[in-house]
Amino acid sequence: MSAVRLPTIAAIATAPGRGGIGVIRLSGQDLLPMARALSGGKAPKPRVAVFTDFPDADGQPLDNGLLLFFPAPHSFTGEDVIELQGHGGPVVMQRLLRHCLSLGARLAEPGEFTRRAFLNHKLDLAQAESVADLIDAASETAAASALKSLKGEFSQRIHALVDQLIHLRMLTEATLDFPEEEDVDYLAAADAQGQLRGIQATLDGVLASARQGALLREGMHVVLVGQPNVGKSSLMNALAGDDIAIVTDIAGTTRDTVREQILIDGIPLHLIDTAGLRDTDDVVEQHGIARTWAAVERADLALVLLDDRAGLTHADAEILARLPARLPRLVVRNKIDLSGQAAGEGEHDGERVLRLSARSGDGVDALRRALLAQIGWQGAGDGVFLARERHLDALRRARAFLDAAELDYAHSELFADHLRMAQLALSDITGEFSADDLLGEIFGRFCIGK
Predict the structure, then answer these.
(1) Which range scores top for mean pLDDT: 92-106, 172-186, 204-218?
(2) What dihedral do alpha carbons 25, 29, 33, 37 form, nearest 10°?
(3) Out of 65-74, 104-113, 136-145, 434-443, which region has the weakest mean confidence (pLDDT)?
(4) pTM of the predicted model, to two decimals?
(5) How many angstroms separate the CA atoms of 285 and 424, rounded?
(6) Could you please report the per-residue DSSP string of 175-222?
(7) Which residues contact 97 (CB under 8 A, 6 or more apart)?
(8) What is the Cα–Cα distance from 203 to 401, expressed in whole angstroms?
C-alpha cells in the first residue's frame, strides 16, 4: 500500500533548552532536493551520516553538524525523513528551523510524526500510543512495559484474538446457508462453544495483563483523611521519603491539599494530604476542609488516619460514614510509638486496620505492601504491557459481546453478530477502525517533534 501523501513537516525533536546536540526532523515526499539544499549541495547517501555546514539562502552557514537522509518507505514515518543534528542552543535551532520552513516545510503539530507513521502503516495505534508512554514513563518498570507495547507484544495478542474470532465467525456464517435444523449440529461438530470459551479465556488473560499495565501507566490517587493532628502530613512525608508537608503539633496546620507522586514497586501513587476534618469557625480552614471532601470524591483510595491512643472515636466514625460507598478505604492507626502498641495488621468492624508509626517508620513498609495489594498490583511479569483506559474499555466491551454470544448460541444470526461486534471492539485498540476525532485526541497529547 502506498504511503499517504501529505505536506512536508519540520520540528525541533530535542527538548527545549540548551544542550550539546539539537535535532531537527523533517518528513515528507521527495525530500532529496531539500537534503541537498540543507547540506550545501551535497548528495547524501541513504542512512549515512554526512558532516556538513547547514547554509542559509545566501550560502552563509547557520550551523554545522550531521545530516541523515532516510528515503521512504524505510523511515520512522514511512515518508522521506531528514534529520539535522547540530548544536543544541535555542537560537541556533530556531534559525535552522526557520530556514527549513523557508524551503517549503511547515511546522509540525504535536504527535504528527508518529501520526504519519500510523497512517503509513509503520505502527498500529497501540504501538503509536506507546511512543508517548515510553517518553512519559515514570519508572523503569513502566518504561520496560511501554517498550514491549512499542515492539508489538500487545498488538500481537490482540491480533491473535481477532484471528480466532474471524475463524469462528466464518464457521458460524457458513451455517446460515444451511437449513435451520442443521445449524446447531454443524456448529456442535466444529465445537463452536469450545472455541468461544477458549477465546473468552484468552481475552481474560489479555485483560488481566492490561489492567496491570494500566496501573503502571496511570497509578492511583490516594487521599489521606482524618481529624487534625493524627499524623497525615507525617505519614505523607514517610511514604515520600522527604519533608513534603509541614508537620507541627498545632491542629489545623495543613489548610490546603498537598500533592506528591511516589513510586512503589514502579507503580506511581499520587498522594494527597488534606486539611484535618473538624468543626471550625476559621474561614481559611473551612475552605481547606471543603477541598478535602472534593479530593475524596476524585480519589481511588482513602487512607483514614486515627490516633492509636484514642482509638476509633465518634468523630472518626463520622468521617468513615461520610466517605463515598464506592471508595475503598484503609484505616491506619498512627502513633504506636506513643501508644506502646506493636506494628501490625488486623480488622475492626469489617474495616482493614494497620498500626504504624509515621514518625519512626515502624510499619510503613507494611503499608506500602498493603497499598499495592489494595490496588490489585501483582508484579510486572513478562506478560505485562503498558495499557490505557481506552484499551481496557475496548477489552471489556469485547468480553461483553462474547458473553452475549454465549447466551445466543442457539440463534446463529445473533451469535455471528455478537462475534462481529467483539471483533470491532478489539480492532479499536490497534486502530483498524478509528475515527479522526479519536486520532486527534490521541496524537494531540504528544510533544512536538515526535
Answers:
(1) 92-106
(2) -20
(3) 434-443
(4) 0.74
(5) 52
(6) HTTS-HHHHHHHHHHTTHHHHHHHHHHHHHHHHHHHHHHHHHHH-EEE
(7) 10, 11, 12, 24, 107
(8) 12
User: What's the whole-number mean pLDDT along residues 319-327?
Assistant: 82
Distance CA 13, CA 449 (A): 4
Quick one: cell of 256?
490546603
| Strand duo 106-107 + 9-12: pairing | parallel
CB 272 within 8 A of CB 300: no
State the Cα angle at 440 between 436 and 445, rounded to 5°. Answer: 160
User: Could you count the other beta carbons within 10 Å of the beta carbon of residue 399?
Assistant: 18
Q: Among 208, 90, 217, which residue's Cα sits nearest to residue 157? A: 208
d(CA 335, CA 17): 46
Q: Per the structure block, which three cell numbers stand in for 299?
A: 480519589
Q: How far is the CA of 331 from the CAs of 221, 224, 228, 261, 267, in angstroms?
A: 16, 10, 16, 21, 21
DSSP 269: E
pLDDT at 368 > cutoff 70: yes
Helix (H) or strand (E) holding 334: strand 329-334
Give yes or no for a contact between 225 and 302, defined as CB atoms under 8 angstroms apart. yes
Cα separation, 264 vs 181, whole angstroms: 59
Q: pLDDT higher for 320 or 364?
A: 364
